[in-house]
Amino acid sequence: MTSTPHSDTTTEGIRVRAAAEYLRPENLPREYGVPDSGKPSFVYRYRIQLTNVGDKAARLLSRHWIIVDSEGRSEDVRGRGVVREFPKLAPGESYSYSSFCPLPTTWGTMEGSYTFERDDGARFQVSIGRFFLVPSAPRLQLESPSS
Length: 147
Prior knowledge:
The protein is mostly beta strands. Helices cover 0% and strands 54% of the residues.
């Protein structure tokens, strides 16, 4: 079994694949170009792919991230939807998005959960397995939904 800095978990028929890559300073989005505090800042782009491998539709309502830097400082991030969207996944459908995570240290981890809701109103938590924010991670690449 090969070890990878990425994650792949399935909960209640929702598969979550996560991968992150370090962004060199010259590739940073404008909003991350100059650290406010004068301290070094390390920015990672992460990509999430959600696939409904179950037999019931579900809509994503909210997210909860636990971000830990290499010095053990933890930050909880909660919010509605993902990138201002609330994707609904029918069986077999996928949804992908990318976002960013700045860190005060060279490496860290992310993990958490999504809250989903079925058509009948039942809500459930979907795990986001721990993945690593490390400069040596391979470039962002997630397999196609069929794999």
